[in-house]
Write a structure and sequence with these properties.
By secondary structure, the protein is mainly beta. 0% of the residues lie in helices and 50% in strands. The strands form two sheets. Strands 2, 4, 5, 6, 9, 10 and 11 form a seven-stranded mixed sheet that branches. The protein has a four-stranded antiparallel sheet with strand order 1-3-8-7, with no helix packed on it. It is globular, with a radius of gyration of 13 Å. Strand 7 and strand 8 form a beta hairpin. The relative contact order is 0.32. The protein has no helices and eleven strands.
C-alpha cells in the first residue's frame, strides 16, 4: 500500500483545511487513520475510519472540529479540519491498518503503512 497525503498549508486560527490521503497498490485496509506530530512531540492519534461501514473515531482534541471521511471509488480518505487552532500545528500523517482492531486503532503501532506527511501550520 502506498499512501500520498496532501492538502496541508499555512492558515490563520479559525480557518479550515481539508487533507487528502490517496491509497494505491493493495488498497483495502480495515482502518485508515490520521496522526500528527509536532516538533519535539510524539506522534498522536487524530482520527480513524473503518473502511467497511464508515464508523469513525476521534481524539478528544479533534471532536467537533475535524471530520474523517472516505471515498471508496477514489481510494481516498479525507480529514476536514475546521476552527483550526495554533496548537493544531504539526505534520499530519495518514496511515493504513489492514489488520487493525478497534481497541488499538489509536496506537501508531497498529498501522502498517504510512504516508509521507503534510505540514499544517496555524498562525494566531
Amino acid at each position: 500500500v502506498q499512501l500520498q497525503a496532501s492538502g496541508g498549508g499555512l492558515v490563520q486560527a479559525g480557518d479550515s483545511l481539508r487533507l487528502s490521503c490517496a491509497a494505491s497498490g493493495r488498497t483495502f485496509s480495515r482502518y485508515m487513520g490520521w496522526f500528527r506530530q509536532a516538533p519535539g512531540e510524539e506522534r498522536e492519534f487524530v482520527a480513524a475510519i473503518k473502511w467497511s461501514g464508515g464508523h469513525t473515531y476521534y481524539a478528544d482534541s479533534a471532536k467537533g472540529r475535524f471530520t474523517i471521511s472516505r471515498n471508496n471509488a477514489k481510494n481516498t480518505v479525507y480529514l476536514q479540519m475546521n476552527s483550526l487552532k495554533p496548537e493544531d500545528t504539526a505534520v499530519y500523517y495518514c496511515a493504513a491498518a489492514p489488520r487493525g482492531i478497534v481497541s488499538t486503532i489509536r496506537l501508531p503501532m497498529t498501522y502498517d503503512y504510512w504516508g509521507q506527511g503534510t505540514q499544517v501550520t496555524v498562525s494566531s
